Amino acid sequence: MHSTSIVEISDHLPLKVEFIESKEKVNELLGKLEELAGSGMIEVQETTLVKPAQVSKPKKATPPAHLKMEGKAKMMRIYIGEADQWRDKPLYKALVEAMRANDIAGVTVYRGILGYGAQRRIHKDKHLRLSHDCSIMLSAVDSEDKLRSFLPFVDQMVEEGLVVFSDVDIIKYSYRAHDVDQPESQSGSASV
Predict the structure, then answer these.
(1) Domain edges within the chain
(2) Which whole number is the average pLDDT over 11-29?
(3) Contacts (Cβ under 8 Å, ≥6 apart) of 184
(4) Which of 53, 72, 95, 114 is deepest in the core (most CB within 10 A)?
(5) What is the pLDDT of residue 124?
């Protein structure tokens, strides 16, 4: 049985890969696909392509409109160690995946080059060493409600660390593309 939960980012969910190609190309690839699928299943079926993908022709683009948005938000910083793990995965990576799955606006992971924490042990980045235990900081900015609703996941995943909330003023710069004409249609079909 495979399932996802809000906390667990499962790497063992069933996966279905579909593609459309000519019968000749599929027959050419079938041996390699059987190797790659292992104990998985391969299905080949006839397909009639009603509307092929269209390639748009670029037209002279006008520069996108520049947008500037300002507002208030919260910043959540999570301080952990680089060697910390969550279910056989680096904790910082598991936290990023969990934040993405919970629709947090964005997060950045920073590796500290020098620092110490509650136990007053110096953590520093040493070159030519395979094992590192540098300080790691994850920084996320979003609404206070969304960040606080993520705290139960932090409680469950972080065994030792520190979480800090700060009020922040945000200025977001982005571009909005102008309306683009519909791409010209192509005709044709392929079947497998």
Answers:
(1) 69-171
(2) 76
(3) 54, 56, 57
(4) 95
(5) 67
Helix (H, G, I), strand (E, B) or coil at 26: helix
99 contacts 107 by C-beta, under 8 angstroms: yes
Look-up of token digits 């200025």: 171
Sign of the dihedral defined by the CA atoms of residues 20, 24, 27, 28, in that order: negative
Please work out, in degrees rounded to the nearest 5, the angle formed at the alpha carbon of residue 159 by the alpha carbons of 166 and 129.
95
All residues at 6 or more sequence positions from 69 whose CB lies less than 8 Å from its CB, including other chains: 170, 171, 172, 174
Q: What number of other Cβ atoms are within 10 A of residue 40's Cβ?
A: 12
The pTM of this model reads 0.56
Q: Which CATH class is domain 69-171?
A: alpha beta
Q: Where are the alpha helices (DSSP H) in 53-104?
A: 91-101
Grouping H, G, I as helix, E, B as strand and the rest as coil, residue 36 is: helix
Q: Which of 77, 109, 79, 86 is nearest to 157 (CA)?
A: 86
> How many CA atoms does the CB half-sphere of 111 hold within 13 Å?
13
Determine phi and psi for 38, rounding to 5 degrees.
55, -120
For residue 144, what are its two tokens? 């206070």
Helix, coil or strand: residue 39:
coil
pLDDT in tens, 136-191: 999 999 999 999 999 999 999 999 999 999 999 998 888 765 444 444 433 333 33
